[in-house]
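Quick log. Single chain, no ligands specified.
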Amino acid sequence: DLLGFQVANDAANFSATIERLLGRSTHNGRLRVGRRTVEIDAFPISVDAAHWEHLGRSNARRAVELRHSLGRDTVFLGIDRLDYTKGITQRLQAFGELLDDGRLDPSRCTFVQVAVPSRGQDERAGVEAWIDRINAAHERPDGTGPVLLIEQSLDDDQLAAWYRAADVLVVTSLADGMNLVAKEFVAANSGGDGAVVLSEFAGAAHDLTEAIIVNPYDIDGVKRALLDAVEQPGDEKRRRMAAMHAELCDHDVHRWATDYLDRLAGQPPVRERSMWNSLVTL
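-> predicted structure:
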């Protein structure tokens, strides 16, 4: 009865596919399937903003401890599944080149990459190779390197602490339906002056328009975005974060669910609700 997609472009692409492959045209987001009408629309999923805001505040002390343990002025953060679509090597390349160029000081910044293990062993090898290269080229006097890799899943409290500890969240997905990490970061940093570098290929870029939007394939563009995130004045960062936080509070996961179910409830009753019957008819 109702097909929901993360962003309007995805809904439009589905409609175009239906027309191209099946010769069925959609009209105003509606598709006739036999005696039925199927609605097609975008329902961008979100997070529980109040929940993450609470977690951010309750883990503020832990965040201070994390920053103290790192001992650096600027903390970049990436949190992803270890998957090639997340563009982890692209962000590491950009960060490494900024260190090579002398535009970032390895003694004053750290890139923390949380990489949740997955089946992508090839990707893991590529990520570790980049980290080894960067840390070897920019080893600090104490023997540490500027990139810290955390290969494990973190619970919500641990995530919230890292969100609060970080200055810049870096999301360079090559393809991402939404990316809720970006939204969690904004919610957990309510009232803060963090910054979000966000791939244009993540659905969240349509909602978090005050983020620094990048094309992850453009390494020079990612480098400029990382520097911009560091160099932005504090009041500009707070303005952007406040605007993104207001958007999240207005369009949180509860509103997403309500909008979806309200639209579904407005559908006329049908005799056959079998998914398989619908697919066969289609």
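Residues 271-282 have pLDDT under 50 and may be disordered.
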